[in-house]
Inverse folding.
């Protein structure tokens, strides 16, 4: 199975160390959130097939940020599906020119440093350039599936967007991107361009109202996610999230 159901009409596609997500909007087709690493397109299209859909049913690809594990498969997926891509202008500019990375530093904490040195230090800085049709700003409402709101969450990556999907009758689903991860507990990303900005972004997300949360890395939280985020990121961020 290339697919894990999180809620009715919401699916996680576990890839190599990163997640993509599919929202099934019925007659409106499919929304893909993030495009994986180069070479992941086949697995994402397998997941689309498991839903009884074809590549043409993927109409919209929301890309949270320019890092290669989220935007690396975008060019190939756009070719395969004909879907239109949505990104924040700051990172759309990166993807259009084939750039995937600005300098990152490790987040404090032993696990963060280990992850950074093992996995992120040598992350590719380039990807296959492709067009991004829709530039999406903070607070913008996308008329997809009964509204998906973009939330600009810089820090891990300057042009990073989270998305809050209020449709589907799930009480709100947050796609947190890498503004938070659910690996060994709910925490900040192990690497940031600007840690203080990342903390502010995590607090911004914790202040939103949602029931489920999906992360670029780690498992989704199908219920009570807003409350858990509030506890983790709301009051004293430094203690639990950077341990
Ligand atoms: Zn990232
Ligand atoms: Zn990532």
């Amino acid at each position: 199975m290339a697919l894990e159901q999180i809620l009715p009409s919401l699916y996680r596609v576990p890839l190599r160390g990163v997640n993509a997500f599919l929202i099934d909007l019925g007659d409106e087709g499919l929304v893909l959130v993030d495009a994986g690493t180069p070479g992941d397109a086949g697995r994402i299209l397998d997941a689309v097939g498991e839903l009884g859909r074809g590549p043409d049913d993927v109409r919209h690809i929301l890309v949270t940020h320019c890092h290669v594990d989220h935007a690396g498969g975008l060019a190939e997926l756009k070719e395969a599906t004909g879907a239109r891509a949505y990104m924040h202008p700051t990172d759309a500019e990166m993807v259009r020119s084939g750039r995937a990375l600005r300098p990152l530093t490790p987040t404090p904490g032993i696990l963060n440093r280990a992850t950074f040195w093992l996995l992120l230090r040598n992350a590719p800085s380039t990807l296959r350039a492709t067009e991004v049709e829709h530039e999406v700003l903070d607070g913008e409402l996308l008329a997809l599936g009964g509204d998906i709101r973009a939330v600009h969450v810089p820090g891990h990556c300057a042009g990073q967007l989270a998305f809050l999907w209020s449709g589907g009758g799930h009480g709100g689903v947050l796609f947190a991107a890498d503004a938070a991860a659910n690996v060994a507990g709910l925490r900040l990303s192990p690497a940031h361009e600007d840690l203080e900005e990342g903390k502010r972004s995590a607090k911004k997300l914790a202040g939103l109202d949602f029931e489920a949360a999906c992360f670029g890395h780690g498992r989704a939280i199908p219920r009570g996610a807003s409350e858990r985020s509030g506890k983790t990121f709301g009051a004293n961020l430094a203690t639990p999230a950077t341990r």
